[in-house]
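Pyridine nucleotide-disulfide oxidoreductase domain-containing protein 2: structure, please.
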Amino acid sequence: MLLRGFSSSASATRVLKEKKWDALVIGAGHNGLIAAAYLSRGGLSVAVLERRHIIGGAAVTEELIPGFKFSRCSYLQSLLRPSIIRWVPL
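Here you go.
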C-alpha cells in the first residue's frame, strides 16, 4: 500500500493504523523493498515504513549540493543476487 497525497502525516498514520498488517518492514531501502516484495508474493499484507521523504536507500540519486546530483551507493546494487534482479517485477 503506497500512501501518497495525504494532507497530513496524521491522516496517513490513521490509514496505517486502521488496517491489520501481517508484516511491517522498517526501512524502504533496496533490502526492505525486496523483503516486502517476497512477503507480499507469499500472500501477506505488508506495510513498508520509511522515515525519509524518498525510498530506495542506497540506490537513490539525490541533489546534495544545488545543481549536483550524487548516487549514494548505487554501485552496491550490482552485488544483489541475479535471481533477485530477475524475480522483482518492474
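Notes: The mean pLDDT is 81.
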